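hi support,

uploading two proteins for the ticket. first:
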Amino acid sequence: MKSRCKKHLLLILALLWLPGIVAAQGIDVSKYQGKVNWRKVAKSKKVSFVYIRATEGTSIRDDYYKANVDSARKAGLYVGSYHVYSSKTTASQQFNNFKSVVKKNKQDLIPVLDIEGYHSGRLNMERVDKLLSLMENYYGVKPMIYTSEKVYTEHFQGKKYRSYHIFVAKYKGSPSIRYTLWQHSKTGRVSGISGDVDLNKFHPKHSIYDLYMPSLRKKKSQEADTTAAKSDSTLTKKPQDSISSKK
């Protein structure tokens, strides 16, 4: 029992020391940020992850999406993608648009369904649920829901949505709803980006690890197991082992 407890503690410590786990801060971007110098963004050390606009509705595709994804990942940032919900088209049409642009193997973070505040009071929840389900089935993980406090209160407080991560936009005061990620500013400044950019931070009880895609989560867990095993081996090594290894 003591041995298992020690290994569990080592695993936790290893996870906490993995890059990007502690105090990660993020941004989200679209074509409106123009051409981003992702090397400068990463070098600034203020940002460790980014959500990038991929699609909207049935046919809109962000012109900068592919370049942003490739360059941001190359610079060492964790990358996720988001789709802007439209009330004018079906869930299947919107999902097909998103799927055609967002490749599974280029996603570090779970996808996001962006439901803007102007949908307040008039969401077709059957359509929203269908789109969430299609995204989950294809990407193998529940998407995160981005929205305002008002829309959340009106439509997403039910028990069926408790298993979804919430990404809330609020620029004055702290959120009054549960959330995983908080977009706390839309006028942030980051080296490598001209003009304003959205800034995001985690709830104290959450970290970027909660948003990892299943493949990345598995990889990081394996790295943590390896680190924990090495630490355990070092801690349990007998004195004579160290002496004999020097002969």
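and the second one:
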Amino acid sequence: MNWTKRIGSILLILFLTLTPLTPAFAVEDEDTSSTTAEQTVSNSEEPTDSTEEDSASSDTESEDEEEVPEEEEEAPDLDPAIAVNAGASICVNAETGEIIHENNAKEKMYPASTTKIMTALLVLENCDDLSDTVTMQTIDFSDVENGASTSGLQVGETVTVETLLYCLMLPSGNEAANALARYIGGDVESFAKMMNNRADELGCVNTHFVNPNGLHNDDHYTCAYDLYLIAQADMQFEAFQTIVNTAQKKLPATNLQEERIVYTTNELIRSRWASIYYDYCYGIKTGHTTPAGYCFVGYAKNEDAGLSYYSVVLGCDFDDEAAYAGSFVETKAMFEWAFSKFSLKTAASGGDAITERKVRLGKDKDTITLVTAEDVSVLLPRDADISMLDVTVEAEESYDAPIAVGDTLGTVTYSYNGTELASTDLVALTSIERSQLLFYLDQLRNFLLSSTFLVIVVVIIILLVVLLVIRAIFHRRKRRRRLRQTKGGKRRK
């Protein structure tokens, strides 16, 4: 009984003791569970945040990586240059005469049929009427060997000078060259002398011709610079411009042949469908012999750019990759380079004030403004600015009035990188009258400072000295005479 009560009491105490603990444990478990859940959520959220941050960071890096970096601005090309694969070459701006490229330009080279531009020049300068006729003779074919270019003319055929010029310049007819030389000079030898004399007149520096067609001769040579000078003279004739820019020409019927067509040897203008065709090319003449290589004298004009150029390439090889003579490939590349790298810019407009100078003897003014007489255009690298030009003024420190409006008082020269590009006269902007008073005073001053006045002064001084000496001598004699008279009077007494 007692043990039963005791056991019951113990169980009751245990029950009472454990009953409040169970909820406590349950709450604690819930709290723990809650805490664990919160931690889990927190832990699961933290990686999420981290992932987002990482993702954001990754996106930022990705954006940085994907962001196209700013392209570095190319340095301005202030001194454009081009390498031309030729024995000699030159490129000259037609508007300014500025040489923008040259390599061995004045070195002796064989010209081959580019010689014919001199032949054409003498014909155009010495024939008043291109409709004059010439009858082909056997001698015109004497040096035309097998393989040499001809235009299909025949002995006894009568053609006009104009037809001969087309036969000369398009298919490069050697017999046409001989016939024209005979017509203008009487014979080939005399015509060759005319060619050399004209070369001298043009300022050619390394040229000697022995025939009108360019068939090889060791003593027949020229240089790229000289061919440019000759081409420039040719282009003063409208007829020449038309002929050299003709791809094909229908020749009129003659006494021996029906109408026929001759074609140019200039691949730059021959066919628009050809890869080598160059739209801005307007001539001029091809040439080729084994010693000379492939040669070409060219002219290109871009009206939109307001620019035109002469080119000469001599001693080129055949370009196997382009499947054309290197003379065409190099000329086209040179023209493209010239039009893309250079532009015509206005250095000064007519009437721009350049400098002031002092004026002497002016009635109302003592300075004069010098202005440019005309517009001055210069060919510069496209990236260059007018401010980069060196300006040189040549004028006196002062001028004497009177000065009239437009009087030439000096010059201004514009240079780039040490190369003189252009110059023009400096003229008076206004007129300045002369002050007569200042003029007379100046005349007097000039007289007083002149050697004439100095001579007069010296002469006067000498005369004065002589007079003083004479006067002194006279007075001395007079005194002596008086002394004698006085002594003589005393003796008589």
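thanks. also noticed: Residues 2-66 form the longest helix (65 residues).
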